[in-house]
Give the backbone structure.
Amino acid sequence: AVALTGDAGLWMCLGELGVAQDLKMDLVVVYLADESLTLIELKQRRIPLAQRGVRFSNPDVVSLGSAFGGTGRSVRGEAAVEAAVAEATRLHRRCCKPQQLPVWAKEVAK
């Protein structure tokens, strides 16, 4: 399975990665890091409102990979993302990748 999420979406659903690990799921997560709650930011601009509470700094997501039993890495650019997803899928590994793509991979138990 391949999932696509933004950074805020990843942080809101972090517990589900633990479930995926426990269930030994083949999972590739493409994570796009823009350090923003983009839809809320756009609404604040449109209304217009002062932009508050929509920007944040991401933690070291690559290290997060090991927290879920994998190995993290970071890639940038469309070609690099495609290659990382293809490799993870080919190797039957679990990965997470953001635009600042932490890819975490671990051999899935058979």
Remarks:
- The first helix runs from residue 7 to 12.
